[in-house]
Write a structure and sequence with these properties.
The structure holds 2 protein chains of 2 kinds. By secondary structure, chain A is an all-alpha fold. Chain A has 2 domains: 1-103, Orthogonal Bundle (Rna Polymerase Sigma Factor, Chain: A), CATH 1.10.1740.10; 105-179, Winged helix-like DNA-binding domain superfamily/Winged helix DNA-binding domain (Arc Repressor Mutant, subunit A). Chain A has 10 helices and no strands. Chain A is globular. Chain B has 2 domains: 8-56, no CATH class; 82-202, Immunoglobulin-like (Sandwich). In chain B, strand 3 and strand 4 form a beta hairpin. Chain B is α+β, with helices and mostly antiparallel strands. The radius of gyration of chain B is 40 Å and the shape is rod-shaped. The chains are: A mainly alpha, B alpha+beta.
Chain lengths: 192, 203
């Protein structure tokens, strides 16, 4: 069972390096993606990432009761992206991309949080299920069933049912994370 | 809709846009009468959309390692204070009002005293007086006169057993500091040198 954000933060505040590493691992992609989406190059995105991590480290005590860090991290990454981007002076479109320096749009935050939740759930899912779902829904090459079957050593005809089982597991993991409503109820479909 | 069993797999196919037109239409008819299944479909579509539009990027391993390292307790580096590291110049006390007859215009005697120091780097004049009758708090005023024109940071530190009191002279080298009664070593930093005036007793 994965530890919650408050549990990890508490462990960090008690000096546990492993908890800090786990916290970074949990949110690294979420943080790093913000400057990259805004068009910052790798070096500047690295700076943004480091700055956000420093800010997180310094704010641990303030954040220890925060149930979900994602919104705080997204806002911090958003502001740092603007700051680093303006300092670099290489992004003439930055003011158009970031029109509100204070915070990203709420619906954008929600979309990024959903992507983050799916990524975390896929990591927890692991194994052949993770590979299958990533191949079916996240591979930019959009491989067909035959390609996927060959890649994963499956029969083409088994992809559909396996996908359904894996997706149901993914739903249950996400429901436990508390991002999406649990009352949807994974696995139960009413008969027509 | 044909009374075939609606399975999760079918619903997932519909959420992914993979059901043929006629079957999709049949399913939509069913969903219109089943809010629970409709909500489930909406949820599946959200998940699929999140996956299909995922443009997130992970940082490199090197960047992650740097972030991990932020947490490591740093070796506390306490720099030695400047008065322990800079070259010292000892100033000679050339005048002590306590050893002189009371001067006109100066509150001498028991209330305060005046000192003058000379060195190769700077001359320092001090005037020390209590701020109240109890002699618990003292004011030290003075002026530093540099022997050479040189860019320097003048910092005066009165070091007592329990405290360190600093004062920054103004452009004319004039300074004032206030401290509690006690024994002090007066140090004047001039560039990379420390002029020490020796111990004085404020009591």
């Amino acid at each position: 069972m994965e530890r919650s954000d408050p549990e990890l933060i508490d462990a960090c505040l008690h000096g546990k390096q492993a908890a800090w590493n786990a916290l970074i691992d949990r949110y690294a992609r979420l943080i790093y993606s913000v400057p990259r989406r805004y068009g910052l190059n790798e070096a500047d995105a690295d700076d943004v990432f480091q700055a956000v991590c420093v800010s997180l480290y310094r704010s641990l005590d303030k954040l220890k009761d925060q149930q979900r860090l994602s919104a705080w991290l997204l806002t911090t990454a958003h502001r740092e992206s603007w700051r680093v981007g303006k300092r670099a002076g290489e992004y003439p479109e930055l003011d158009k991309i970031i029109d509100n320096v204070a915070a990203p749009e709420d619906d954008q935050v929600a979309a990024w949080e959903r992507q983050h939740a799916v990524q975390q759930a896929l990591k927890q899912l692991g194994g052949p299920c993770e590979k299958l779902l990533r191949a079916l829904f996240m591979d930019s090459d959009q491989p067909d069933y035959q390609t996927i079957a060959a890649r994963l050593g499956m029969k083409v005809g088994s992809i559909g049912p396996t996908r359904a089982r894996c997706f149901a597991k993914l739903e249950r993991i996400i429901a436990k994370m508390g991002i999406w409503p649990e009352e949807v109820g994974a696995g139960r479909i009413s008969d027509p | 809709m044909a009374r075939s069993k609606l399975t999760f797999e079918t619903l997932l196919m519909h959420a992914a846009g993979e059901l043929p037109g006629e079957r999709a239409a049949e399913l939509e008819q069913h969903l219109a009468a089943s809010p629970q299944d409709a909500a489930r479909l909406a949820h599946l579509r959200e998940l699929i959309a999140a996956m299909r539009t995922d443009d997130s990027v992970a940082p490199s391993r090197q960047i992650l390692e740097r972030a991990y390292a932020l947490f490591k307790p740093r070796r506390l580096e306490v720099a030695a204070p400047w008065w322990e590291t800079l070259a010292r110049v000892v100033a000679a006390c050339v005048f002590d009002s306590r050893l002189q007859p009371t001067l006109a215009g100066f509150r001498g005697g028991d209330d305060g005293f005046q000192l003058a120091y000379e060195s190769q780097v700077a001359d320092v004049d001090l005037q020390c007086e209590p701020t109240a009758a109890s002699h618990d708090v003292w004011r030290v005023m003075g002026q530093i006169t540099l022997k050479q024109e040189r860019p320097a940071q003048l910092t005066l530190v009165a070091r007592g057993e329990a405290q360190i009191v600093q004062a920054e002279p103004d452009e004319f080298g004039v300074f004032t500091l206030q401290t509690s009664a006690g024994a002090y070593e007066i140090l004047v930093r001039v560039g990379d040198q420390v002029v020490t005036l020796g111990q004085i007793e404020l009591s």
